[in-house]
Amino acid sequence: MEQFIPTGDKMYVLNRKSAPLSFMLASRNSRRKPLLYFDGQSNRALRYARNQRSPFEDEQDGNAILEPIVFEDGFLFVPRTNPVLQHFLSLHPGYGNIFEEVNNERDAQEEVENLNAEVDALIAARSLDIEMLENICRVMLGSKVDTMTTAELKRDVLVYAKKNPMQFLEMLNDPMLELQSKVAKFFSEGILRTRNNNKDVYFNLPNNKSRMLAVPYGESYTYIVSSYLQSDEGIETLKLLEKHLE
């Protein structure tokens, strides 16, 4: 195992949206709450003792002074003068799950990437023609696009792009977008209907009320229908449904 080399003061933060005023992190191994680190050969018990040089219990002497590790308001500051605690936290099973080290450069880079994606999404949304605006509203927003004005379509798509930039940009490059929009219209126009809590899709044509397909558990019925209609088996069905839209 590589030697731990402290690089300065460190700040740690709890990975919770609403951090408690005070949170005590497990600081020693026990039968009830194992605190182990696998070093490549064996699981070694961890224990934080401020007067020891190692976070491993098997490397500590009998005079270990234990003390709690407490996050206040979701944060824990560890100075460079306490390298054993920094080392202990780097090996803790909760690192990356319960808590993580604050990395201002990384956080700033992530924020820049998110802002860039938001800008790209808004620019792309602003340049869409009316057909694409309608497609997006049908597929992602479930809107009744036939009753919406162009201004309402633009507003809703811009708002969606701002709130979900990554998903919006991915959707624009999805070859199934147009087909999914058409499928959504099949349902809004009553050409297709679902039954049994959206588990089955049925034709709703003058001379055809039969079941079209069953929807697998947990799947979107519009996505399943779209996938079927783009298959070799479903092409003729797509042509039939398109005729009833005309």
Please explain how this structure is put together.
It contains eight helices and ten strands. The longest helix is centred in the middle third of the chain and has 23 residues, at 104-126. The chain is 39% helix and 15% strand. The chain has a three-stranded antiparallel beta sheet with strand order 6-1-7. A three-stranded antiparallel beta sheet has the order 8-9-10. It has a two-stranded antiparallel sheet with strand order 2-5. The protein is elongated. The protein has three domains: 10-102, no CATH class; 104-174, no CATH class; 175-246. Helix 2 (104-126) runs antiparallel to helix 4 and helix 6 (177-188) packs across helix 7. The chain has helices at 83-91, 104-126, 130-141, 150-163, 165-172, 177-188, 221-229, 235-243, and strands at 10-14, 22-25, 36-38, 43-45, 69-72, 75-78, 99-101, 192-195, 200-203, 211-214. The protein is of the alpha+beta class. The N and C termini lie far apart (70 Å). The mean pLDDT is 90.
